[in-house]
């Protein structure tokens, strides 16, 4: 009887561990600047008004076209024929972001994500994680000193 109880307990623990490993959790962090500095937000909104960041949208879209996320910085490894296009989209996106005040760059990335979502119908599951990582790490991919990463609070629908 004790053997059966121990075996049952071990089986329950294994099943719970497996269920916990398969649980999908995403944490979105809000930065202090987003809350405490509405003047900065208004300044960014004015600077970004009417801008589309189409190259950034294109770069984010490439993450939805299949590929494997094999790196630590959210960069997808795409088939060879897509790499040149991806590099060009990234370069053009970085150029677009450099034309924006560094304090507004994350807001510009959020805007590109929102517009890309509206055109593409939103994100689901793994696709959400891939696009989120690509967007969050865009400043780092562009080799920008400030910010290095963006916290994308309230962006994904």
TrEMBL record:
What molecular function does GO assign, one term? nutrient reservoir activity
Q: Where is the Bifunctional inhibitor/plant lipid transfer protein/seed storage helical domain?
A: 44-150
Against Gene3D superfamilies, the record matches this protein to: Plant lipid-transfer and hydrophobic proteins
Which key words are in the record?
Seed storage protein, Signal, Storage protein
According to the record, the residues making up region (Disordered) are: 60-86
Q: Which Pfam families match?
A: Tryp_alpha_amyl (PF00234)
Top-rank taxon of the source lineage equals Eukaryota
Q: In the record, which residues are listed under signal peptide? A: 1-21
Q: Which family does it belong to?
A: Belongs to the 2S seed storage albumins family.
Q: What is this protein called?
A: 2S albumin
